[in-house]
Amino acid sequence: MRSITRSYHILFLLLLVPPTTALSIDTPPAPAGFSWYTAKNGVGTFLKPDGWFALEETKGNTNAVFISRENIKELGKFVVGFSVNHITSYSNSSSIKASEYAKVFMQKIIDKHEVISSGVVKSGPNDMNVARVKGDNAGVMTITHHISVGMDGRDELYLISFEAPESEWETYYKTAGQILNYIILGS
């Protein structure tokens, strides 16, 4: 198992601002081939590759965003893409803190898959638990990069991933890096 050593430039700007404070975020210019997508359900602001699709869902206290190569509305699934599940009022559904669950969640991922790399990235007040793993997704060998972040002070949990078939991972590695390196949560 290799440790995560690459640098993350994740923009966790809202972690410094109380949730009740109104904030306008000026995003930097999007890299060539991308535009910024701000979720209406409050999950955050993310880079969306040109020609890709965005979908939002809300069920109970979970808001989700999917940015994918495939149109999920038409196909009902995606093969290559990014997803974020944002659980609000986390303590209503668990007896452990969000930050502890983020660690437990990542350990379960690590225990069930072939691990390419894993580790903890110190990111301001909230650690990011990360793992890149290989696994079988409905008969297709897939590589998925997972990030879990528990924000105890805001009672929120973020479960983030980018996945692609192993045969396409190298093709989408730079796209994954762009998306995962520039995330503004909770905007």
Notes on the protein architecture:
- The chain is an alpha+beta fold and 187 residues long.
- The protein is 17% helix and 41% strand.
- The protein has 3 helices and 11 strands, in the order βββββαβαββββαβ.
- The protein has an 8-stranded mixed beta sheet, with helices on both faces.
- A hairpin with a 4-residue loop joins strand 9 (140-151) and strand 10.
- The longest helix has 15 residues, at 98-112.
Poorly predicted ranges: 1-23
User: Looking at the structure, what is the overall shape?
Assistant: globular
Question: What would the average pLDDT be, to the nearest integer?
Answer: 87
Tell me what portion of residues adopts beta-strand conformation: 35-45%
Q: How is the largest sheet built, in terms of strand order?
A: 1-7-8-9-10-6-5-4
Given helix and strand content, the structural type is alpha+beta
Report on the biggest sheet. 8 strands, mixed
Q: Write down the Rg.
A: 16 Å
Helices, by number, come to 3
Number of strands: 11
Distance from first to last alpha carbon: 34 Å
Question: What's the SSE pattern?
Answer: EEEEEHEHEEEEHE
The helical percent reads: 10-25%
What's the SSE blueprint?
Layout: E1 2-3, E2 34-38, E3 44-49, E4 53-59, E5 62-68, H1 72-75, E6 81-87, H2 98-112, E7 114-121, E8 128-137, E9 140-151, E10 156-165, H3 169-181, E11 183-185
Parallel strand pairs: 1-7
Antiparallel strand pairs: 2-3, 3-11, 4-5, 5-6, 6-10, 7-8, 8-9, 9-10
